[in-house]
Amino acid sequence: MENSLPSKIIDRTSSSYKIKKFLRKNLGGWLIMLPGLALFTFFVWKPLFQNIILSFSHTMGMKAVGFAGFENYKSVFQDVFFIDALVNTFKYLFWSIIIGFFIPIILGILLSEVVHFRGFFRLGIYFPSIVSGMAVAIMWSYLFDPNPGAVLNQLLARLGFKYSGFLSNPKLTIPLIILTMTWRGAGATALIYLSSLQNISNSQYEAARIDGANWFNRLRFVTFPHLMPTIKLLFILQVISVFQVFYEPMVMTGGGPNGASVSLLLLSYNYYQQMELSKSAAVAVILSLIIIVLTVIYLRLSNPNKREAKNV
Amino acid sequence: MFKALQSKTNGIFNYSDYKKPVYKIVYCIILFFLFVAALTAITPPLWLFISSFKEASELTSVPYRLFPKVFDIGKIVSVWKMLNFGKYFLNSIIVVLGAVVCSIVFNGLLAYSFAILKPRGYKFFYGLVLLSYMIPAFSSIVPLFLSIVDLKLQNTFIPLWLMFGANAFYLMMMKNYFESLPKSIFEAAAMDKCGAFKTFFLIVLPLSKPIIGVVAIFTMTAAWSDFLLPYLVLQDDNMMTVIVKIYNLKDTMGSMQGFGPDKLLMVLTISIIPQILIFLIFQKRITASAYAGAVKE
Amino acid sequence: MRKLLVIILLVACGLLSACGGGDDRIKVSIGMWPEEILTKDVEMFRSWEENFEKDYPQYDIVPDHYTYSPDTVIAKATANQLPVVFQTYFTEPKKLIANGFIRDITAELQELGWYDKMDPMMRETLSADGKIYGVPRDGYGLGLFLNLEMLYDVGVIEKNSDGTYRLHDDSGNPLYPTTFDDIRRVSELIVENIDYTYGIVILSANKNGGWQFSNMAWNFGCKNLQVYRDGKWEANLNDPGAVRALEWIQTMRQEELISSDASLSYNDWYLKIGSKQVAMAFCGSDALSLPVTNYNFPLDQFAFVPMPTGDGESRYSLYGGTPYVFSANATDEQVKGALLFLKYMGRSPEVDDISVDAMELGFKTAQEKGMPILPTIKAWADPDYLEVANELEEKYINVNMDYFKDFFDTINEMKKPEEPNYCQDMYALLDNAIQSILSNPNAVAQSELTTANAQFQKNFLSKINK
Fold first, then answer.
1. Count of domains forming chain C
2. Where in the sequence is the domain holding B94, given as residue range(s)?
3. Which of A230, A258, A283, B187 is the most exposed place for a label (fewest CB within 10 A)?
4. Which helix (H) or strand (E) covers residue B216, if one does?
């Protein structure tokens, strides 16, 4: 029975075998990761790194031509518009929570309750999100024409109100911009809530009924707890995206009137237009830091277990 | 109408509630609000569509007339021809197609290695990918543009395609999906001595049709509306996408002869129409994917 | 067989390389080349190109249409995509020079003998450290655009027996507004008698508000918004004259004679005029054709008169112009080719047959397009050139000169160039003051301008005072 022996005797304890096995196991994985990682490096990490360097340099045109230390940051912090942008960001957040956060939740719940016209409603409210952001912004900036002869103002006049300056009224600028963004995004968000709602099993409602809960309590003890994870996730996503608001103020108000709607990213872009690339980079770095800090805080607060947080 | 409600068994309100007339009114109120919501969503683009047929002077005429004096369907054609819009559409389509391919292949490969292969040290890169999710895309634009110029890739579509291959959001979605695939298929593939690469293309991808559909639709929407990088990279008028051209037109409207705000509105309408058409055709898929992304949380 | 293949390959390569690189001509890309949709303009440029390449076969003129904007110039310059020569705004060259985007052409201009023929004021604006960086296309002065029909309807002006409007009374005094008080009075009439109108457009955004405002400030008595004292530049944005100008805007808003829209830019003025939402607007003398081409405004329904005065004495018209500038990456030969091409476009101070023909072609094309042909403010001060140019203009002018005479007769005394430093940034700060006044009923003009003043001094003028 000599044939039962393998023709090659493999020494499974030698280090070269272990190395080979290690390589065999991982090399394929590394090679596969390579294209994706290369792209991430080129499009995300390398520019981020270069941005940090730019923010610490003097620039001529787009190139860095000398070390500037914290000079750019200093002059950014002293810029009146930077303070405006910071304050505005919180205003944007405030209004987006009031207008933009609750509406999709309400819409989602309403949608899950109706049996008629479901398709029509879903299509209808999802429709604005397929229109490109720029077209939406331009369209609404025409609708918000402060001229007394414009559409909405004439409508207001017929209803007996005085005409409104809309975007040129600094009290209204940010809320109106948020309104535009909500108009565009509420539908998609509502559908996300809808799908989560449809996963609520009927037995939970039945149980609540048996316990004598009225509709308000059913809402409180069955619907909302089920939605909570989705709500938390979408909340943080919304906060992150509101911080980065850019297209709408750029197209609709240019940051005005007098800085009433300037956002941090818009500020960065304005520096770009003024050909001060180093300050533009500085603002971008500041913004990134703020977002990272916020996200980490939020994750820690909602998921005390650090391991869980990584699985987001 | 209320007959349908008699068989409703789930939700906050169900058939037993609706037997009482009070709740029937509640239901009507719900319907009313949803109608208002749907109308609010549809009316502005409808207004845009109607207004774009007006002459420039009718836009803010007094008193305001909703409909233009002359409904000239030909205006679509004339504005299209005047700006030679076809080429911008073609460019946008080319960008979208390339973006979808890159987004699925590159993100997919990386997601595959994070979810299944898990080579040594993958956690580090995974962390970096998560980090990139929190960086606003805009902030890296300038240095990114410089790198692109260094590689002499400006005024080409290549950077725009590849950009979608490095998207943390799509990657996460695909990773979650891959993790839900049954482990047995990978064991079977390993036994058949199928290399990792082959496994991905021949086994994983075909099984991932749902998530590919979702990612494809998201990518299509994002690539079509993408503005900042194309604005910088596509400097030649012939290469511009629809969105870039629209912004360009808006910006230079003051110095262009023969192009007033009415034409800008018409251009907006023209750019929206194909999106609407695609939406209507693929509605089920699109609305399904809207919440597929969240379900995997 | 193999040998044959190799030979074929080699020959093919040779042919290909000859096709590709055989063109030794110097490429000169022209940024002012018109867009394809403007067919008549393209024809005009093509004929200029033909004449040029015939006489100078070593050059290859390449159309490279580029409408300048501060966003795109940075990207294009960095990617080396700027045309050899392109048009920009008058206030841009300093910024472009500082960032290394455009190059100096002193040597080439002097070689052609054009340096000395340039209008001195324009030459000054285009120079830095003794070197010159651009060639002016033409100049503009700010003035007051009037919708004659509306002014007639409220009784401000009268009509002649032949239907044309009469802008002067029997003693030759103007019936149109010549002071800011007049404008207010006329605006009151307009708003009272015609629904949904305002009297005049006051721009407020995109730095265009501040641009026009600086002229208003001068005419209310402010001598300069930037003053050079003891070797340092000082900001003077809160000069009493400027405050009076801003207060005038505030009064106009409080009496609802101007719009509260804080986003009006230079794209909007002809829109408002064209759709008869306002009767008057400030604009540059080189933009008068816009309402006609973009809004079908009738050629015989508008007039352009000098800027009004605020204090009764100061009469200035902000003076600028569109310069042609040259990419920093352009070689000396390319610059020379571009300059020579300018001659074939009729934009040089030369008066030989070629130049005159080119200028005539320009006029004829404008005529065919139905554009209003008005006197222009010349870029060159050479007397021979001026003689020829004026003669040609007179031949082609197709508007009623009564409506424009006053402006062009007085422009030479009224013209005042823009402030020298960081003009666009100054305008941006002034924009903010205007926006504040328009949107906040409690704003105080004095403090708005003092704030803007401090910011301008700290963020911009201090940079050159180092």
1. 2
2. 79-295
3. B187
4. helix B209-225
Is residue C305 domain-shared with residue C382, that is, in the same domain? no
Q: Of B64, B128, B134, which has the smallest distance from its Cβ to A151's Cβ?
A: B64
Distance from CA of A298 to the nearest CA of C (A): 36
Q: For residue A129, with 0-12 CB atoms within 10 Å meaning exposed, 13-18 middle and 19 or more buried, which class applies?
A: buried
Scored b (16 or more CB within 10 A) or e, A7-22 reads eeeeeeeeeeeeeeee
- Per-residue burial over C180-201, b if 16 or more Cβ lie within 10 Å, else e, is bebbbebbbbbbeebebbbbbb
C360 and C283 fall within a common domain: no
- Angular region, B119: left φ>0, alpha ψ -120 to 50, beta rest: beta
Residue C360: CATH number of its domain:
3.40.190.10
Q: Which residues of B touch A65 (CB under 8 A)?
A: none
> pLDDT tier at B103 (50, 70, 90 boundaries)?
very high
Q: Would you say C257 and C199 are in contact if contact means Cβ atoms under 8 Å apart?
A: yes
* Range in A203-207, B68-72, C428-432, C453-457 with the lowest mean pLDDT: B68-72
Inter-chain touch A32–B8, beta carbons under 8 Å: no
pLDDT band at B81 (very low <50, low <70, confident <90, very high): confident
Nearest to B31 among A114, A234, A251 (CB): A114
C78–chain A Cβ distance below 8 A for any pair: yes
> Tell me, what's the ipTM?
0.77
The strand pair at C131-132 and C127-128 is best described as antiparallel
DSSP characters over C188-240: HHHHHHSTT-EEEE---STTHHHHHHHHHHHHTT---SEEEETTEEEE-TT-H
> How many angstroms away from the CA of C99 is the closest CA of chain A?
5
A36–B37 CB contact, under 8 Å: no
Contact residues, C window 343-382, toward B, CB-based 8 Å cutoff: 369, 371
Q: Using the predicted structure, report yes or no on whether residue C11 has a pLDDT greater than 70.
A: no
CA distance B72 to B165: 43
With CB atoms and an 8 Å threshold, state whether A33 touches B293: no
Report the distance separating Cα A211 and Cα A207, nearest Å: 6
Total structural domains within chain B: 2
Task: Considering only the beta carbons, identify the residue of B122, B165, B287 that sits closest to A122.
Answer: B287
- Using a CB-CB cut-off of 8 Å, the residues of chain B touching C81 are 154-155, 235-236
Name every chain A residue with its beta carbon within 8 A of the beta carbon of B247: 134, 251
More confidently predicted of B84 and C51: C51
Say whether pLDDT at B206 is over 80.
yes
pTM of the full predicted structure?
Answer: 0.80
Interacting residues of B136 by C-beta distance below 8 A, sequence separation 6+:
A243, A244, A265, A284, A287, A288, A291
Please report residues of B whose CB lies closer than 8 A to that of A134.
225, 227, 243, 246-247
Phi, psi of C138, rounded to the nearest 5 degrees: -160, 175
Size of chain C, expressed as the number of residues it contains: 466
Q: Rounded CA gap, A265 and A283, in Å?
A: 7
Q: Which of A150-154, B36-40, C277-281 has the lowest mean pLDDT?
A: A150-154
Does residue B153 form part of some domain? yes
Same domain, A265 and A131: yes
Nearest to A30 by CA among B172, B124, B205: B124
Residues of C in contact with A148 (CB under 8 A): 196
**Domain range holding A182?**
73-310
Closest CA to C323 of C85, C33, C87, C132: C87
Q: Is A50 on the interface with C (CB under 8 A)?
A: no
C206 in the same domain as C176: yes
Return the pLDDT at C236.
Answer: 92
Chain B neighbours, 3+ Cβ pairs < 8 A:
A, C
Quick one: how far is CA C45 from the chain centroid? 21
Q: Which residue of A has its CA nearest to B264?
A: A138
Q: Measured between beta carbons, which residues in chain A are less than 8 angstroms from residue C95?
A: 275
